[in-house]
C-alpha cells in the first residue's frame, strides 16, 4: 500500500525519535525534507540511508506535484521537517490535501511538536486553546492582530522568532500589562527555560537581555466578560418570566 507518512522528528533533543519513526524512515523509498544537509545529520545518527529530496516553502507546489507522481507510481514517501511535526507551520498541508484528493493514503508517525509541548508545560489552562502560528512580522499588523485577540477566552499559543520576541512582548505590555504570559525557550535542549510573568514583567526582562534560541509565546485567556445588567433589563426579564414584582 503506497502512502505518504508524516513523520515527526526532534525539536532539539536527538533522543526524541520514536522506534516507529526510525523504522518508517528506513523502510520508505524516499524522504522529503526541508534542508537535506540538516536532516542528513539526524538520519546518520540513526543509521538511516534512505534517499533524501528537498521540499521546502518555496518549491512546495512544484515539488509536491512531483512527489505525487512518485506516490501514484507506488512509492512510499516520508515527509519530515527541520524539527517537529511536518505540516504544522512547516510545508506539507497542500501535499496532504492533494494526496486525499488523489486517493493516496496519508498516515502520521506522531512525536515532538513545539506548540502543544509548550502548552503542556506552561501552566496555563489547557482545556481550550488556540494555536496562532507566527504573528505578522510588521509591527502595525502585529499590533492589530494582538488587539483583535485580546478578548479571546482560550489560551493562545504563538510561534515567535527570537529577534522579534522583545518587540512582541513590548506590544503586549502596552495592550495588557497585567495579563499572564509564558515564554517557553529551547524546549528539550540544554538551556530549556519556562519563563512566567505578566506581559509587563517579561517585556522588561527582554528589553535588557538578548533572546537566545527558539521560543514559543503563550498568552493567558481573557477573563470572560459578564453581561452588563442594568435595572431595566432585570425588571423586563422578570416581567417576561411572569415573576411577581
Ligand atoms: N513544525 C514544528 C513543530 O511541529 O513544532 C514547528 C516549526 S516552526 C517553523 C518553528 C518554530 O517552532 C520556532 O520559531 C519556535 O517558535 C518553535 N520551536 C521549535 N522548536 C522549539 C524548541 N525546541 N523550543 C521552543 N520553541 C521551538
TrEMBL record:
One of its GO terms (molecular function) is rRNA (cytosine-2'-O-)-methyltransferase activity. SUPFAM superfamilies: Tetrapyrrole methylase. It comes from the Bacteria. Residues 3-203 form the Tetrapyrrole methylase domain. InterPro entries: 4pyrrol_Mease, 4pyrrol_Methylase_sf, 4pyrrole_Mease_sub1, 4pyrrole_Mease_sub2, rRNA_ssu_MeTfrase_I, SAM_MeTrfase_RsmI_CS. It catalyses: cytidine(1402) in 16S rRNA + S-adenosyl-L-methionine = 2'-O-methylcytidine(1402) in 16S rRNA + S-adenosyl-L-homocysteine + H(+). The keyword Transferase applies. It is found in: Cytoplasm. Keywords: Cytoplasm, Methyltransferase, rRNA processing, S-adenosyl-L-methionine, Transferase. It holds the Pfam family TP_methylase. One of its GO terms (cellular component) is cytoplasm. Catalyzes the 2'-O-methylation of the ribose of cytidine 1402 (C1402) in 16S rRNA. Belongs to the methyltransferase superfamily. RsmI family. This is Ribosomal RNA small subunit methyltransferase I. It comes from Geothermobacter hydrogeniphilus.
